[in-house]
Amino acid sequence: MTRQSPPMKNGLFWHFAKRMLRRRRLAVGTIVFSIISAGGLAAGLVAIGPVMSLILDNGPNSNLRTAVEAQVASNGFLSSLLPTVLIELLPTDRLAGVALILAALCGLTIFGAVANFLHQYCSLTLSMVTVAEIRLEAFRHALRLPLATVLRRGPTEIVSRITRDAAELERGFSALSSKALAQVTKGIAAFAAAVWFDWRLTIAAIVAAPVIGFVLRKFGKRISRSSRNTLIAYEELLRTSNESMQGLRGIKTATAERDARKRFGRANRRVVREDRRARVARAISAPLVEVLAIFLIAGLALLAAHEIIGGRMQFDRFVLTLGSLAVAGGSFRPLTGLLNDIQSSSAPAERLAEILSIPAEGMRERDLPALDRHTRSIEFDAVRFRYEGAERDAVRGVSLTIRHGEFIAIVGPNGCGKTTLASLLVRLFDPCEGSVRVDGVDVLGTSLTSLRRQIGVVPQDPLLVRGTIRENITLGLDPMPAAQADPAIARALRLAHAAHFVAALPKGLDNELGEGGTGLSGGQRQRLAIARALMRDPAVLILDEATSQIDAESEAQISAAIDEFRRGRTLIAIAHRLSTVRSADRIVVMEDGAVADVGTHAELLGRCDLYRRLVSTQLVA
Fold first, then answer.
1. Residue 333: pLDDT band with limits 50, 70, 90
2. Which of 125, 224, 296, 596 could form a disulfide linkage to 589, CB 3.0–4.6 angstroms apart?
3. Rounded CA separation 187/191 (Å)
């Protein structure tokens, strides 16, 4: 089962924008309040006509009541809306009529301002929650991506797309739902008022719309392309800064500060260069549209002058129509920048969609049966694996059978495939050829979750997140009541030889750890990782250099505890300590991705030259 890919290129922004409609109340509120706010503008423009008539017309019957009665008499629809009783309440004094209209406009302005506030609140909230939902979906999907994909692309690229690209997408959503919608509805309202005054000039103004639209489309494509390049440049800047900050200890000890500055400077200059290109396109588009608008107004004025001179148009109607079109143009004018923002958001939308379209691991196994708890054997059958882009296999032709309850140590030179072989069992990678079977069942034919839930892994560089020690030890486990969890945590800490130093901390299990376990020694971090693995009650325990940063005395105590804990469990240890290797039931010697020999410590010393060299040069006593 593969994830359905969304439409590509320009449609991607709208693909994500449709998600705003899922929040129906906010979406409806955004549209309704925008229309109400624009309606107030249209009513205000239409009301200017009667005000001008009352002020400029000096006839005996020029008052608000007679003006309204004349309009009602000529328009049957108005007669149904305005009853005679209401008309009779209107003042006959000209100044009082003007004051009443202006007072109504002031009230309408206050009502429109409230509607405008509610529109802004609804639209910005709608954009925020929609992008938060997309960001969460992208992160959730990234966690399920195959490890090979993440390693190939780099974690920085994934993080950049989830965070920065989502923020850029929110800018487009805000431009669409908040500013663009408000400007469009106000522009349409002013345009409707212009039609009310004189439809001929209004129709003439429409002729210029395709020209302006063509200009906006051309610049929009350029802005979209520049925005994508800018995001890629920011991604490289983030990668460079992360590498420097995470490896700051090595940079300082190698006195490589100058090199780090140069690398960051190159990435920073690229960001400036790509961002400048996008901003130049934005800067050109707005003045160009304004020039076209001036040409349009000049043409309309010439047309109106011809009609007025010919006696076919009243001057006040021309002024009101031109004023309404000017208001419409003023409302549509910001659309140039807003459309640029929307075009800019098409690039991050494309990059987010690309991540979401990558098939997640375990998707096709949803309907596969769960793997029963391991009780018999683990088999590697002619397994071959090569990392993407590599020139040679990391694991080649490995065939190995591990009996349930057996303690297997895997040794070999650096880069010989030890960790990769263990990763194939956990299905961090899938073999290119051959199969991995647990109790005779191919792991590719079982539920991925059921496989990993019964395997505990302690890596050389353990994962510790910002939070309490309790949260770190129970990471990945289903929630359980404190009465049940605390004894299990205490037992795991005791077996991992971590209970003493945890108890000495100010808050014990509730002591907060910094990022990456800041404040703990390397050995203490590894002990917590061992405790976390033991908390899973695994059927298979994989120790990947798990005691490399622990002193020999503590390592001996942990080994004794694990010997007790591993009863009824299979233990696979990738080790550089001779004490760990000697206590193994069998030792697997690997070289260049293949199994060179298998046997006990004494057997291998007698027949395997590579093992003897490892004992004398690499394995720590």
1. low
2. 596
3. 6
Q: In whole angstroms, give the CA distance from residue 347 to residue 363.
A: 27
Q: Which of 437, 514, 181, 73 is nearest to 65 (CA)?
A: 73
> Are residues 528 and 472 in contact, defined by beta-carbon separation less than 8 angstroms?
yes
Separation of alpha carbons 575 and 407, rounded Å: 12
Distance separating the N- and C-terminal Cα atoms of the chain: 50
CA-nearest of 350, 355, 358 to 168 is 350
Is 349:327 a contact under the CB 8 Å cutoff? Answer: no
Indicate the SS3 state at residue 358.
coil
* Residue carrying structure tokens 């009667």: 50
Among the residue ranges 3-12, 92-101, 502-511, the one predicted with the least confidence is 3-12
Looking up tokens 């795991």, which residue turns up?
492
Distance CA 195, CA 51 (A): 19
Q: Which tokens is 371 given?
A: 């793997």
Q: Using DSSP, state whether 132 is helix, strand or coil.
A: helix
For residue 438, give the nearest of 426, 429, 421 by alpha carbon: 426
DSSP per residue, 540-601: EEEEESTTTTS-HHHHHHHHHHHHHHTTTSEEEEE--BHHHHHTSSEEEEEETTEEEEEE-H
Residue 2 burial class via C-beta count within 10 angstroms: exposed 0-12, middle 13-18, buried 19 and up? exposed
Contact 298, 27 (CB under 8 A): no
What does the block give as tokens for 162?
């989830």
Instruction: Please give the Cα distance from 287 to 476 (Å, whole number).
Output: 56
- Determine contact, residues 29/122, Cβ cutoff 8 Å: yes
Instruction: Evaluate whether 440 touches 377 at the Cβ level (below 8 Å).
Output: yes
Q: Confirm if 230 and 272 have CB atoms less than 8 A apart.
A: no
pLDDT digits over 571-606, tens only?
A: 999 987 777 788 889 999 999 999 999 999 999 998
List the structure tokens of 111.
């009502």
